[in-house]
Amino acid sequence: MNRMHTARFTPSRNVDEITGSRRLRRMRRADWSRRLVQENRLTVDDLIWPIFLAEGENRREAVAAMPGVFRLSVDLAVKEAERAARLGIPALATFPNVDMALRDAAGSEILNPENLINRATRAIKAAVPEIGVITDGALDPFTDHGHDGILRNGVIVNDETVATVAAAAVFQAQAGADIVAPSDMMDGRIGAVRDALDAAGYQDVAIMSYATKFASAFYGPYREAIGTQGLLKGDKKTYYLDHANSDEAMREIEQDLAEGADMIMVKPGLPYLDIIRRAKDEFAMPTFAYQVSGEYAMIEAAAANGWIDGEKAMLESLMAFKRAGCDGILTYFAPRVAEMLRG
Ligand code: PBG
Predict the structure, then answer these.
(1) For 149, phi and psi rounded to 5 degrees?
(2) How far apart are CA 281 and CA 283, in angstroms?
């Protein structure tokens, strides 16, 4: 008979008898045995490093709500890409802080082949061809209202936004992006991006879908970093997912995969581990989490106050993603973790 089963389902069973035969603490007694039975590992190969871009040269601007994170001009972003490659970090994801003068209601600067994202991709791929570059495909860094799409009469218009995002993806591929990552949550964007890339000859450029992106309070510091904090009117609830919903998140993933997504992402990360586990179990696709700015800020702020051990909390949070089923994590901790893991 299965003792485990009996122990679980017979409440009257003598407790001494159960512990006598089955002592789970045996394997926890020593460091060597803990290492031997450890189920998940965090390695440098699990890391994607999101970096913020700024105009100018030799510029390194601190992001107040994200201690240790900076906006970098393209020349310094290249230096960081070189450092990331030396550390063995597989890929970077870039996010631009676009000049306010270039932002408009339609986000038209996203269609400039020489915009900040595309210039950074070119420079990084020229200097460090071996590192993966992931470019973001949403309009919010380019619009003067901070929304991810084209705003008309108070509505984020879906299909026109999709056409713009698809056209922008082609420019990003042209600049050398290895993966384009549409993060705008418009319906039909993945299929449109796939078609546009294929038509332009970029069959080998992959798509990472921000398939389940929730309307979340945890993006606050990011908006300071890319300068949309003071711009955003209202919220993003008409296009991002309601954070109360899990079935709907599965429908988003199913649709994005049907349209051709190569990999999927859950965002934010730690408050959504249930979504990650469900996504991995149901679809068995390459699955990523974005440990977003607010998650980073919470750990950093508590650590700065001496309330938690920041380094341990960082590692524990990243291991949680692996345990939940992630293949990798977008995290602002990437270079710090990589340095630690390399001893
Ligand atoms: C928008 C976008 C967001 C983030 C990256 N791209 C969310 C938003 O501004 O609403 C958040 C990343 C983070 O918080 O670290 N396309």
Answers:
(1) -140, 180
(2) 6
Confidence of residue 16 (pLDDT cuts 50, 70, 90): low
Report how far ligand 1's centroid is from the alpha carbon of 157 (Å): 19
- Over residues 250-290, the pLDDT tens digits come to 999 999 999 999 999 999 999 999 999 999 999 999 999 99
Q: Which residues does the annotation mark as catalytic?
A: 213, 267
State the Cα–Cα distance between residues 60 and 186, nearest whole angstrom.
33
Nearest CA to ligand 1 atom 3: 219
Measuring from each residue's beta carbon to the nearest atom of ligand 1, which residues come in under 6 Å?
Answer: 136, 138, 140, 148, 183, 219, 222-223, 236, 292-293
Measured from the CA of 220, which atom of ligand 1 is nearest?
A: 14
Q: Is residue 144 predicted with pLDDT exceeding 60?
A: yes
Q: Taking each helix axis as running N to C, give the angle between helix 310-324 and helix 334-341, from 0 to 180 degrees, rounded to the nearest 10.
A: 90
Question: Cα–Cα distances in Å, from 243 out to 66, 86, 212, 218, 268?
Answer: 24, 38, 10, 12, 10
Task: Please check the confidence at residue 227 and state whether its pLDDT lies above 60.
Answer: yes
Q: Which of 136, 257, 141, 140 is nearest to 194 (CA)?
A: 257
Cα of 268 vs centre of ligand 1, distance in Å, is: 9
For the CA of 294, the closest atom of ligand 1 is 14
Tell me what the pLDDT averaged over the chain comes to.
94
Question: What residue ranges do the domains of the chain occupy?
Answer: 45-342
Extended beta strands in 153-244, E state: 155-157, 179-181, 206-213
Q: How confident is the model at residue 230 (pLDDT cuts 50, 70, 90)?
A: confident
Residue 77: pLDDT over 90:
yes
C-alpha 54/C-alpha 97 separation (Å) is 5
What's the longest Cα–Cα distance across the chain? 74
CATH 3.20.20.70 fits 45-342, yes or no: yes
* Closest protein CA for atom 6 of ligand 1: 183
